[in-house]
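Help!! Second protein's tokens look totally different from the first
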Amino acid sequence: MTNRLFTSFICSGALLLTACGGGSDSQTSFNGKEKLDYNKPETTETISEAVVNLSTESDNILFFIGMLTQGIYNSVNSADFSCETGTVKLNSNKSVTLDHCKNFKASSQGSQFPGTVSGTIQSTDNSTSSLQKNDLNLSEINIELAENSIVFNGKITHIATSPANNLISESYETDHSTLKFIEKYGDRNHYLYTLYNYQLLSNYYKSTGRIEDFAKGKMNGESNGQVFSVNFASNFNFTSADDLYNFKPHSANVEITDLYNQKNTISIRQTTDAKALINTYADGKLVQTLVQEWDELL
């Protein structure tokens, strides 16, 4: 899944709205659908791109959906929001419902978001004296852009703390959510992901500017009718915020395990010349070694 164009649009819209700055008992039904074959190179690409995208804040599609919808919510509740066409409604419980809201803008900022958004957003501040916590509940969020569309359902929890003078920690979590992504042109690829017990923890060290990202979770996925189910865990280190957003890690480690056959694995590390080294094992046997630029995995 190619997210660079999609997330650049999302972030531009979120900036306008001042927002840019497990569970194995629940299974997606894959009955009768073909499982991805770890012997095939395209399987490595499909799974690796989906997992790496969720492993840092850099071009993380879940992160940007959260920023966009939180920005919409804040602007509507501040009476600083309008749709070019379509409607937006502030409900009695302070949730926000959009119906084909096209090219919206915050009137105080002027620029328009280049797309259409529908769905319901509820945001709840559960902060305490020691942490900032926000629960974002998203129902049938449908984002239509010129080249891509996305449907998201689920809850995203954002927590920010400062456990030490030198450290700021932020986490983004979802216990269970679904994400459908469609490329409208070219091959018209369709992707469907269900996330369980997902967490992205980002530590920022103020004295050095270093950023360390940890992610973990379970993903059931479907790519153009073929399915996979994996557990994943990752750790990325970046020497600066610029390196994070340009996706140039100082070090990296991603481990992916197939839940249909735990001898099917994908391991991603950094080479000495700062590229991604990807090793894929099918039934315990090394079947592919691939070296790529890191941004090719986003």
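Here's the second one for comparison:
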Amino acid sequence: MTKEEIIKEIEKALSYLETVDCMTLNKTVQTASSKKVNKTYDILNKLKKNLQGGY
């Protein structure tokens, strides 16, 4: 994975987190925010494994 690809993946993860609403009581918004946080974790875990050499 190149430096540019890593930067793009980090930017994608940050864009998901930028739109998370932690203060709402609306169940639909909470569910959408939860999905965004899960996507962010997936992206970051993939990057971590890639940077560690696939281990």
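Reply: Different proteins will give different token patterns, so don't panic. The mean pLDDT is 93.
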